[in-house]
Amino acid sequence: MRLIFTLLFCCLLLCQTPLFALEVNPRKLDTGELNAAEIREHTVTLKNDEKSTVTITKLRSSCECITLETTEEKQIYPGKTFDIKVRINPEKMQKSRFKKFIFIKVENSASPVYSIEVIGNIF
């Protein structure tokens, strides 16, 4: 009987803890076909589904071909959104299909690191 109550209590705790407390949109960024001379811009939006403020501590990409721009404010308050401007410069890549990543490190979140896959084809 004690085991049943312990399991029930653990299930209740786990159900209340979100797996990902930041909603990342899009999770995968498909740029499609890119001309080698064409710089493409996209926006990634983060929404804080936590009950407390989340702070972005680091933003980086796996390639210098992708630059990230944000506002100075790196805190995302509960229920609020935060935009990241993603600029892809194909001149710094080979002409072929590519797969790169954007990494977002945060404090005060159920998941401390988020990644966004960036794919496309340069011709």
Question: Gist?
Answer:
This protein has 123 residues and is mainly β.
Give a description of the structure.
The chain is mostly beta strands and 123 residues long. The chain has a single domain (20-122), classed as Immunoglobulins (Immunoglobulin-like), CATH 2.60.40.10. The chain is built from one helix and nine strands. It has one helix at residues 2-16; strands spanning 22-25, 28-34, 40-48, 54-61, 66-69, 75-76, 81-88, 97-107, 113-122. The strands form two sheets. Strands 2-9-8-4-6 form a five-stranded mixed β-sheet, with no helix packed on it. The protein has a four-stranded antiparallel β-sheet with strand order 1-3-7-5, with no helix packed on it. Strand 8 and strand 9 form a beta hairpin. The longest helix has 15 residues, at 2-16. It is elongated and about 60 Å long. The termini are far apart.
